[in-house]
Design goal:
352 residues, mainly beta, four-stranded antiparallel sheet, 28 strands, globular
């Protein structure tokens, strides 16, 4: 039986040996990748693929840039647009490819961009600067920093994770008029530093990763009277028993099947895997493994869920691991791929 074909797109900070989006052919069975080419773009710190798999959108120094995805997974540049603020750090697209959403770490801005019928990026639809003060003014992170923007599974609301304010602001998305309206705030603990949000595959639960408190908060999510309702039901640590305060939770992804949630920790350099209870949404720890590289900023789980990889921002490499769910551990495998300052990854199954 012929295996599905996958490619992986890896965005990097632009350095001498790393000048754009790296395209890899993915070997799912063996949990490895081979680089095919590099597409030039300045500092693609985050990227996303449209639901119809026809377009890739990336952060760039100039704002955001659109690419057409060719049948073999190659990328063809389309256009770029300014986002109306400082350089973005996170990008999201709605399921019907109507709007692009950008989070800004440097200026605390959430930007909503029109998308044209041909998939190219249009003009700015709306933009909101977060305001307020979070942690101690003696620290650099007391001002707003939007580190993640993620649509709810029903596509009704946009969650903007603010690392500086310890908030996740929830906006109603007006697709007709291209507007965002604040309707709720998920308030994290002081100095918890929320970093990203993910949703369960069934759309009933939300998971918020906190960088400084090194925890995942689990929320039951539903819409009541056309309003979002997030009910906290669990808090679980990302640290192992002997980890210390140099730990900083950094990455989080739900596996393809929805059975597992993976998180990476910088500082202590580890990956923790939780099993997701499909009925309750609650997490239970499967394993917590030290990884062999420095600063696993983000991770990706292979589609067969037998392997995962980490993108390591300080050791400048991608490392691969085999998962043993039965004995509850993972082991390093293969050879690392050297790459300067990897920041984000998207694995795409190519059409037959």
């Amino acid at each position: 039986m012929e295996q599905d074909r996958y490619v992986a797109y890896v965005g990097t900070y632009t350095h001498e040996n790393s000048v754009g989006i790296h395209i890899y052919d993915v070997d799912v069975v063996n949990g490895s990748m081979a680089e095919r080419k590099v597409v030039p773009i300045n500092n693609p710190s985050d990227l996303v693929v449209s639901k119809n798999k026809k377009f890739l959108y990336s952060i760039a120094d100039e704002g955001v840039e659109a690419f057409k995805i060719l049948p073999d997974g190659d990328l063809e540049p389309m256009n770029e647009q300014w986002i109306g603020g400082m350089r973005g750090c996170y990008v999201e697209v709605d399921d019907e490819n109507r709007y692009l959403f950008v989070g800004g770490h440097h200026d605390g801005r959430v930007t909503m961009m029109h998308l044209n019928e041909d998939g190219s990026i249009g003009s700015i639809a709306d933009g909101i600067f977060h305001k307020g003060m979070g942690r101690s003014i003696a620290q650099r992170n007391f001002i707003p920093h939007v580190d993640c923007v993620k649509l709810t599974p029903d596509q009704k609301f946009l969650c903007a994770v603010d690392n500086g304010l310890d908030h996740v602001k929830v906006y109603r998305v007006d697709y007709e008029y291209g507007k965002l309206k604040l309707v709720d705030i998920i308030r994290g603990k002081l100095e918890s530093a929320p970093r990203m949000i993910r949703f369960s595959r069934n759309g009933k639960f939300a998971y918020v990763l906190y960088e400084l408190s090194n925890t995942v908060e689990v929320y039951r999510y539903e819409v009541i009277n056309d309003m979002p309702v997030f009910e906290q039901i669990q808090t679980i640590t990302t640290m192992a028993p002997k980890d210390d305060d140099v730990c900083a939770a950094s990455g989080m992804e739900v596996s393809k099947s929805g059975k597992y949630l993976f998180c990476s920790n910088a500082g202590v350099n580890s990956v923790v895997c939780y099993e997701i209870d499909s009925e309750s949404g609650l997490l239970s720890t499967v394993f917590n493994t030290k990884v062999n590289s420095d600063y696993p900023k983000v991770l990706a789980v292979f589609p067969d869920e037998k392997h995962y990889l980490t993108l390591n921002n300080n050791s400048n490499d991608i490392m691969f691991y085999r998962i043993n769910f039965e004995d509850q551990y993972s082991t390093w495998m293969g050879h690392p791929i050297k790459i300067d300052k990897p920041n984000c990854i998207y694995m795409l199954r190519l059409a037959d």
